[in-house]
Amino acid sequence: MRLTPVLSANWGSDRPWTLDGYGDYAGARKALAMDPDAVIQTVKDSGLRGRGGAGFPTGNKWGFIPQGDGKPHYLVVNADESEPGTCKDIPIMLANPHVLIEGVVIASYAIRANHAFIYVRGEVLHVVRRLQAAVQEAYAAGILGGNVLGSGYALDVVVHAGAGAYICGEETALLDSLEGYRGQPRLRPPFPAVAGLYASPTVINNVESIASVPAILDKGVEWFRTFGTEKSPGFTLYSLSGHVTRPGQYEAPLGVTLRELLDVAGGVREGHQLKFWTPGGSSTPILTAEHLDVPLDYEAIGEAGSMLGTKALQIFDETTCVVRAVLRWTEFYAHESCGKCTPCREGTYWMVQILQRLEAGSGDAQDIDTLLDACDNILGRSFCALGDGATSPITSSVQYFKDEYVAHWEQGGCPFDPTAATLFATATQGAR
Amino acid sequence: MPFDEQTRERARTLIARYPKPRSALLPLLHLVQSEEGYVTPAGIGFCAEQLGLTKAEVGAVATFYTMYKRRPVGDYHVGVCTNTLCAVMGGDAVYAALKEHLGVDGQNAVTDDGRVSLEHIECNAACDYAPVVMVNWEFFDNQTPESAKALVDDLRAGTAVKPTRGADSVCTWREAERVLAGFYDGRADEGAAAGPATLEGLRLAGQQEGTD
Ligand SMILES: Cc1cc2nc3c(=O)[nH]c(=O)nc-3n(C[C@H](O)[C@H](O)[C@H](O)COP(=O)(O)O)c2cc1C
Ligand code: SF4
Ligand code: FES
Description:
The structure holds two protein chains of two kinds. Chain A is of the alpha/beta class. Chain A contains 18 helices and nine strands.
């Protein structure tokens, strides 16, 4: 398997976060010389799919924006990156904020927006600085402002820091947050393409989606399609974390397998075996060693019963207690539930109570049934996908590791030593 | 006089950045924290006055977001990621060690000297550097209980500390909040482009090239 650094290609170069270190916005220059509709068509033809989790075709999303409607249009970049395990957008923006700004120029021009917002989670101070500095530099260089690269097209970009709320990554909650409200999801329809920010047509795209666009404009659709598969074309950042020898960002064509990625990353940490993993963050059902050869693209991972999500590959070896892992994720969902709908608000609360009992060893078989029942009542019945996501770790862990739940109540406690799973565990601890 | 003319001027600058004034509410709440350290009743009143909202409307927003504090935090606010991946990799041990070492308990609890406050946080998008600790929202990657204790000792003693991926030194909580409000502090050129884990794939791709 060949790694294919495109987004990450300049991360090791001299001050890649500056305009000098970045380059000349070649993709944006080409786009600005084209008709906006032709830019949308190019992105459609490339087959680029959204990297924020759902994999929706980016060009199609842009195409939904009504034209000639007399309303202002907006582009909003979703830089909230908070899905547990996901850690790709933050390094993109830290090392290379200009690729995002170039993508913003192209996307905004295509959808005829004169105002774009980068909604970045607040808990990443230096990333916010790099974005602020890059935007200032871009204004000074005439890349933003009243006459973008001399084309006559006008674009303003605002960097907007969030304030700590996972739900604000959900695109309609993000819009409410950006309008100065509590971040709670909106009823759809109307979809943001029709009535988004300030009830105007709005495109919301993930950082990596937008950052992938400049290369497509610069190097062309055919080039882009030489990477990846027919239905999942292109390159992408796979983020390996946890019990892996060399955690980090691995840029590769869509459709590589975890076995291939682990091969280059030095495998599961020495002396240990893969137990379970998430393909795309905590909201995507866990998989096991039997799925090592499933292509990491939208279709194949879906057929395997999970979702590609954000390609956040969290790797856990046999020292990890799956009940502990699932409890912690469930506590996260309960904490982050925005409270708008009952299945999610009440369901996540009760699931935490039950999982705490199970982890402590005082649960029973009835608890498992109650958990699955609660998941049934949340999945598909919640107002937004946070609720659905909260059920993923539970149902998938019961599917693959029911014995481990049983072991907790049979032994009256957790059979695992948490120190054995840590980064600083000694080899002997790890080997138990 | 908590909100002087300069702060009011800053508030006007923020509001002018948006097509609709209310969009400036989150930045204004960050601004309030940069002036007073946390969101005080006066701060809520200030935002309400700037935007023509009621205090109840502003309060309802402020309490929704975890970064807005209702009580003072330390000059250095320490967040330990205890979401699953970091917790398993040692974040739970780091958090337990810091609680004991600092003698604080409870979310956002502050040391007696007011220097350091402690919070366990959710995934901070740095899982490839687990376990992760944040100080005033700068990254301290791959921590152990020992390294984290040494870190907070330095913070309490006033010894400069350097994030693993961030500026050359950690600014104060209030300075950080001013940046988050939207006022750039000129420090983007400090620090590295990326940490070692970020560059791992790129490095290995270079090795693959070499084997052609
Ligand atoms: C609870 C929740 C959190 C989300 N968080 C993020 C996020 O942090 N970043 C992101 O890009 N998308 C996130 N999404 C997905 C967005 O709603 C949206 O699908 C995405 O930003 C669209 O961009 P894309 O088409 O470029 O992928 C989240 C969705 C949900 C339900
Ligand atoms: S599913 Fe959860 S997060 Fe989504 S609207 Fe309902 S309560 Fe809010
Ligand atoms: S789980 Fe700790 S940074 Fe992601």
